[in-house]
């Protein structure tokens, strides 16, 4: 028989309705028509009764992998196989409550009946390992392209994780000391059901050949646990935390907080993360902390930098420290206050917390407090918000209103009154007033992301001021005025864009602090050279009476596979000029080589630096090397990665976000399977993709374009998922690894197995089908493997692949199974 005849037979089977079909084998040009088994094709889409691991696919959208039961029952006097979904599996489909009430179940709630819902169909597809579910949109809950309701969210699997950011550096001063430095920070954690247990840590080691000697420290800076409460669209956190608020300042405490979680809302209703910008004079390390806790650190190349990876939950005052390779240091502060959110009409968003202030030694060192805040959507344009803090010696009450001005932007005004009892004799009482504004000017291609003004009376103390005064015997920074502006502007016709970030803080009893950064970029074409860019950046920081101004000019031009650029840095009495070459390599690695000279007080010295970054499958690695004539030689190495362990396996991986959401993928022990964007499975067939967005629809997949020739994916290579915050998601892909071969199969009596018999490997996966005269095209075959041939209701025989078979064509004998 020719293979086109087999295909024709299958088409005939697929063209019928889900009824039994009796094949006329006379149309087949086969010498042994009686030795044919087409029973599995006698019904369109027929699947034998049993349990199957399938991926739910709802209206062309992938959901989770499930164990699906297929049962046989009588339908109009004829046997029919039906799909059975349990009550828990039906809830994953996201039916509206009124639709879910129409689905009936058997006694053990293992088989749902959808007959009362018009238009609902369920169809298994073993070739794709999918259960295709079609449900009219009228029966489903609200959803958008990147968000689904809580019934689709997954808590992931239980497991352990350790994320880290390790920075190593060594500097050899010219005719001076040799300094070695290492810093590490990250998150250790465990997931147990919906609970996320986390412990933040940070450590440092420094060694100098001079008098400073050796210094080292390691601290667990925060230990806490949290979980999502989808029914409330809220998050519960217990342990050590920082009170983060749109109304009040932040402070460290030990206790519990229940808060509405913006991440659980559709993307269009979520807030934004703060941004940190500045200029690095050399290859530098940027450390962002809040009240002593490192929340982010990274290495940046010389020049302007903008860090936009901070978590949207970060609020309040942040300390920024830029450690240059030449030993110099920049320090400044930014305030990340946001425009208080406008709430939808009739909705209330809230935050409730209680506990005691605590320090980094995990000691409670303040009075018991309780606090709460909320925002109420009065109408489409108006929101009322406010909150209060209540403790033994401190009371605070805030009230404000937000207004959507439509074409004019959004505006909010609030006032906070506080009373603090520092001692029995010293009591302070005052108010703080705040005005916040945000607007996108589309017609002008400009945006005021945030503009704010705050004035505090001399005797006004925030909660953090009050705690600082208690610890430092009445000494604290008494804030007076705070100005904050973040804005951008584009000039499309001139191909110019500009950006500014400015914060100005004054105090009643000490000097003011000031920080701004601005940049303007111009794009142009000169002759045959296109996409030439020039950027002028400026930054100023004034902190603790110290002021520093920096200007940076850069011009770049694409050449071949790389980019050639000029960089000029002007900082007070010193300046530098350099030329750089930047290139992205085939594997996604990047490097930069820079050569130039610097002058300081009339002294001129040559400089050279190199910067290399590799986004590996086990960690992200950055290496740097710098040399400055008669000043120093410096080398640095940064590793950013993590390790995740579950009952399904363990793997090293890059670190997307410390302690954040991730996906574990297993491929049945098959190594080197490419998954995601840049991952491959390890020797145990496990890979972890970090940096998954919480509560957003994400996909994980096998990269079939990078698959080795001896590996095939059974079923769909893509799976979609929505994970709760901090979850370790899990997906298992069925993989066939082995060579392909054309086999001629025969039984012990010399006759071929029945036409249409299924050939299965040791995992009972189908690797081929018997054709005419016992010929079968097999894939995923390994030397020494035992294969099983199955046909009809009881037909079965076994055969073995030769131990060292590398032939494309083999003859195999199949022995009967008693």
Automatic annotation (TrEMBL):
Keywords: Cell outer membrane, Membrane, Signal, Transmembrane, Transmembrane beta strand, Transport. It is found in: Cell outer membrane. It is a multi-pass membrane protein. Pfam families: PapC_C, PapC_N, Usher. Residues 742-797 form the PapC-like C-terminal domain. Residues 1-20 form the signal peptide. GO terms for biological process: pilus assembly. Residues 22-167 form the PapC N-terminal domain. InterPro entries: Fimb_usher, FimD_plug_dom, PapC-like_C, PapC-like_C_sf, PapC_N, PapC_N_sf. One of its GO terms (molecular function) is fimbrial usher porin activity. Gene3D superfamilies: 2.60.40.2070, 2.60.40.3110, 3.10.20.410, Outer membrane usher protein FimD, plug domain (2.60.40.2610). One of its GO terms (cellular component) is cell outer membrane. Belongs to the fimbrial export usher family. This is PapC/FimD family outer membrane usher protein.
């Amino acid at each position: 028989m020719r293979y086109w005849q087999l295909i024709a037979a299958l088409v005939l089977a697929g063209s019928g309705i889900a009824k039994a079909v009796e094949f006329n084998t006379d149309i087949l040009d086969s010498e042994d028509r009686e030795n044919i088994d087409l029973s599995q094709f006698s019904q369109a889409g027929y699947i034998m009764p049993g349990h199957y691991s399938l991926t739910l696919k709802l209206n062309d959208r992938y959901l989770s992998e499930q164990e699906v039961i297929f049962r046989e029952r009588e339908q109009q006097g004829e046997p029919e196989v039906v799909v059975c979904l349990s009550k828990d599996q039906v809830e994953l489909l996201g039916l509206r409550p009124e639709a879910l009430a129409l689905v009936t179940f058997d006694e053990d709630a293992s088989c749902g009946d959808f007959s009362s819902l018009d238009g609902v169909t369920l169809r298994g597809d073993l070739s794709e390992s999918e259960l295709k579910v079609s449900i009219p949109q009228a029966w489903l809950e609200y959803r958008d392209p990147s968000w689904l309701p809580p019934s689709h969210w997954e808590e992931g699997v239980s497991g352990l994780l350790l994320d880290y950011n390790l920075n190593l550096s060594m500097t050899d001063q010219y005719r001076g000391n040799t300094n070695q430095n290492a810093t590490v920070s990250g998150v250790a954690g465990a997931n147990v059901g919906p609970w996320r247990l986390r412990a933040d840590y940070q450590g440092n080691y420094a060694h100098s050949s001079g008098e400073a000697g050796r210094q080292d420290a390691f601290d667990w800076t925060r230990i806490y646990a949290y979980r999502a409460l989808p029914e409330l669209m809220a998050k519960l956190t217990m342990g050590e935390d920082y009170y983060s608020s749109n109304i009040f300042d932040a402070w460290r405490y030990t206790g519990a907080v229940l808060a509405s979680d913006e991440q659980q809302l559709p993307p269009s209703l979520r807030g934004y993360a703060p941004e940190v910008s500045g200029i690095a004079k050399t290859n530098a390390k940027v450390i962002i902390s809040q009240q002593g806790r490192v929340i982010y650190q990274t290495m940046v190349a010389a020049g302007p930098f903008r860090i936009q990876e901070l978590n949207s939950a970060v609020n309040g005052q942040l300390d920024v420290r830029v450690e240059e390779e030449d030993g110099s240091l920049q320090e400044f502060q930014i305030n990340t206050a946001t425009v208080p959110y406008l709430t939808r009409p009739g909705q209330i968003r809230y935050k409730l917390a209680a506990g005691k202030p605590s320090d980094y030694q995990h000691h409670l060192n303040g009075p018991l407090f309780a606090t709460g805040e909320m925002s109420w959507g009065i109408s489409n344009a108006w929101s009322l918000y406010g909150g209060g803090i209540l403790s033994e010696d401190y009371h605070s009450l805030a009230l404000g209103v937000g207004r959507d001005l439509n074409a004019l932007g959004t505006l909010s005004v609030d006032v906070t009154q506080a009373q603090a009892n520092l001692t029995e004799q010293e009591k302070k009482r005052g108010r703080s007033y705040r005005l916040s504004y945000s607007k996108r000017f589309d017609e002008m291609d400009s945006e005021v992301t945030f503009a704010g003004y705050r004035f505090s009376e001399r005797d006004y103390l925030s909660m953090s001021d009050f705690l600082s005064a208690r610890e430092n015997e009445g000494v604290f920074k008494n804030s007076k005025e705070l100005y904050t502006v973040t804005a951008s502007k584009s000039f499309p016709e001139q191909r110019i864009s500009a950006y500014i970030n400015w914060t100005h803080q004054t105090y009643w009893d000490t000097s003011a602090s000031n920080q701004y950064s601005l940049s303007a970029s111009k794009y142009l074409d000169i002759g045959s050279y296109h996409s030439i860019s020039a950027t002028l950046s400026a930054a100023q920081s004034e902190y603790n009476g110290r002021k520093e101004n920096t200007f940076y000019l850069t011009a770049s031009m694409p050449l071949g596979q790389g980019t050639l650029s000029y960089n000029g840095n002007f900082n007070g009495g010193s300046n530098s000029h350099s030329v750089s070459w930047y290139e992205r390599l085939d594997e996604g690695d990047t490097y930069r080589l820079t050569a130039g000279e610097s002058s300081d007080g009339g002294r001129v010295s040559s400089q050279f630096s190199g910067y290399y970054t590799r986004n590996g499958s086990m960690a992200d690695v950055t290496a740097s090397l710098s040399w400055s004539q008669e000043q120093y030689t410096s080398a640095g190495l940064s590793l950013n990665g993590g390790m995740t362990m579950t009952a399904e396996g363990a793997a090293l991986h890059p670190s997307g976000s410390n302690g954040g959401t991730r996906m574990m993928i297993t491929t049945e022990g098959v190594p080197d399977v490419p998954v995601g964007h840049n991952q491959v499975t390890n020797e145990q067939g496990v890979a972890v993709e970090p940096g998954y967005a919480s509560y957003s629809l994400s996909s994980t997949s096998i990269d079939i374009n990078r698959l080795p020739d001896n590996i095939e994916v059974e079923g769909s290579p893509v799976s979609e998922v929505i994970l709760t915050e901090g979850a370790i998601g899990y997906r298992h892909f069925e993989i066939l690894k082995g060579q392909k071969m054309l086999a001629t199969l025969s039984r012990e009596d010399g006759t071929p197995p029945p036409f249409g018999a299924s050939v299965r490997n040791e995992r009972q996966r189908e690797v081929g089908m018997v054709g005419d005269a016992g010929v079968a095209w097999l894939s995923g075959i390994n030397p020494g493997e035992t294969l099983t041939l199955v046909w009809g209701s009881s037909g079965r025989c076994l055969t073995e692949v030769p131990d060292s078979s590398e032939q494309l064509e083999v003859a195999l004998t199949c022995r009967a199974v008693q």
